Amino acid sequence: MNSYKNRVAGLFGTGLLALLLSACATQPTAALRGTGDLGLVIERATGQVQVVETSGRSALAQVSGLGDLSHASVVFSRDSRYAFVFGRDGALTKVDLLTGRIAGRIVQAGNAIGGAISQDGRIVVAQNYEPGGIKAFDSETLEQIAEVPAIYGSAGQRSKVVGLADLPGNRFIYSLFEAGEIWLTDLSDPGNPKTQRFQAGKQPYDALVTPDGRYYIAGLFGEDGLSMLDLWQPELGVRTILPGYGRGEQPLPVYKMPHLRGWAVAAGRAYLPAIGRHEVLVVELGTWKEVERIPVKSQPVFVMARPDGRQVWVNFAFPDNGWMQVIDTFNGKVIDTFAPGRAILHMEFAPKGEEVWISARDDNKVVIYDTRTRQKKGELPAASPSGIFFTSRAFRTGF
Amino acid sequence: MSMQVFRTRVSFVLWSVAVLGVQPVWAEGGEPAPGRARELVHLVRQDCGSCHGLTLQGGLGPALTAEALADKPAEGLVATIVGGRPGTPMPPFLGILTEAEAVWIVRELMKGFPEDGGPSPQTSESAR
Q: Which domains does chain A have, with CATH numbers?
């Protein structure tokens, strides 16, 4: 009798559910869909983000109220449903890509520069300029679970934190701009963070970790060269690679700091922007020998490999930020130079690299190119677009 | 900024005024043409904003709000824009803008900088 009642209740429930579903079917958000082709476009001036999809190249939703999004960056939950947006004003906003709504929001610092998510997806970490340090949050609730202040020197100053990346084992690595140090924090027991400190070069401004999580490379503003830490042998300490790559020449004025996070590792080599120079430096991983330096149009900002590693795409600092160049990694030659729009700030490859989305801030649009033919395939309107982030980042170390 | 560096900057400014014939418009309250003013506001908000923040609350570079600049001498700020600050990421902007424009920017910063009216209206020639 009991089971009969349950069945009736179940049937009734199913009917109700069907009714609800049919009622919802007119709402586009109720349609079942995956998240593998989704992403976010930052609209930096208006504090908004657009949820986009790359299969049909369209915008699905616009989400407002995210604050100051200059230099905003994004990491994704391991189910690639949620985006964690780190704003300049210290806000951390969790956006539900499927509903196009804010699922959580906190203001965690006065001035922040980005973040990372742990290997197991449970911990989101923000890197902060003010107060300098990192803070860790529960990715479910955004509740703070740990903090490591970047205190250095005898007077107890706090350093700005740059170049944060996740590592296997729920560890995080980052650099201290003023202190010239690299810190490695183990959050496998979040209540008891353990931090190892390494002396690095002068004024690290950003960093990358190789896809295998082995090498951490920090770019230096204050000296010619980069600081490298082999995370399989951290006891060896930080080593300077490409020392003196500027050959003692005066660097050009730098109007936009390069970004290393969209690292370009292709065919066992790293393609790195030379600071204050019109060059991309190519270094062999492991031996750290300079393979070549590729002359490019201006000072590189992002030097990013297509996912297959055959091409590297480069954009440039103000005032040459309307240009884009493409390097063929097989022969080290620039194979294309073109101007997709005004103020090209960022680019993002589709997960398998057949197309690239490029933000043209001053043309208020995102332009989409076929990476093989370099023909334009489409564009999307966006207000002052800057960063573009696709969910395929959810499955990559260092993103 | 050390006094010596500051003095070098000031003398650079004076040199610019003398040799380049740049008008010391801070004395006259000179204004750039409206189209150029819009470009300068966009430049400061967006491109200076990549280090100083869109809201000018600071980032890798210090805050440039009216409050933050209240106790700074205007001439030193102009010198920093024109000549950069060696040893820091602040680059020299002479060439991208004139010294008179730097003077105008400093004056506007100290009053509380205008909102961005967007880039100049011309549309770009796309190569493809």
A: 257-339 (2.40.10.480)
